[in-house]
Specification:
This protein is an alpha+beta fold. The protein has helices spanning about 20-30, 50-65, 80-85, 110-115, 145-155, 165-175; strands spanning about 1-10, 35, 45-50, 75, 95-105, 125-130, 130-135, 160-165.
Length: about 180
């Protein structure tokens, strides 16, 4: 069994609500062991076997059935999360905000170039495998990038982002 972390896209915004209890129950119903959640923003961790793609598909289908809306899920192993957090593609200064955006698959060379081309005075994007490291000089409210920018390059339902402060705490919690 491997420790996996699932990140749900766009939950607990608008009418797309999922509680930690609901998320835990879906994971347990799927047969995952040692299920837990971390902050109420669509993050679950558990032990299971199987491929990343099969876990993402099973969770997405089970969550949609339970919640009544599409629930795209991105899964990483704890090792993959720690590797992403150890990457240092740029300096992060006081006052900066740093996200890792999870993708299903590594982008093509053209998509990588287009994503990194979105960088500007506020936003810096660096693609490393299936992850996009995104530094903002300031807060996310000051970012010039919107969902539309990402979807124009990658298509709909293609990514979910988490703040590295939260990810670092989650990785430490999991050991």
């Amino acid at each position: 069994m491997t420790t996996r972390i699932a990140f749900l896209r766009a939950v607990n915004v608008g009418k797309r609500r999922v509680t930690s209890d609901q998320l835990r129950a879906v994971c347990e119903d799927l047969g995952y062991a040692d299920v837990g959640t971390y902050i109420n923003s669509g993050n679950a961790h558990f032990e299971t076997t199987g491929s990343r793609a099969s876990i993402e598909q099973a969770m997405g289908e089970a969550l949609e059935k339970e919640l009544g809306f599409e629930c795209t899920t991105f899964v990483r192993t704890l090792t993959e999360l720690k590797k992403a957090l150890s990457a240092k593609p740029f300096d992060v200064a006081d006052g900066d905000t740093y996200f890792i955006t999870f993708l299903k698959d590594p982008p093509t060379a053209a998509q990588k170039s287009a994503l990194e081309g979105l960088s500007g005075d506020i936003d810096t994007l660096v693609v490393l495998g299936r992850d996009v490291h995104w530094r903002m000089h300031g807060t996310s409210m000051e970012s010039a990038l919107t969902k539309r920018h990402w979807e124009k390059i990658l298509g709909p339902l293609s990514s979910t982002s988490r703040n590295t402060t939260m990810l670092t705490k989650l990785a430490a919690r999991l050991g």
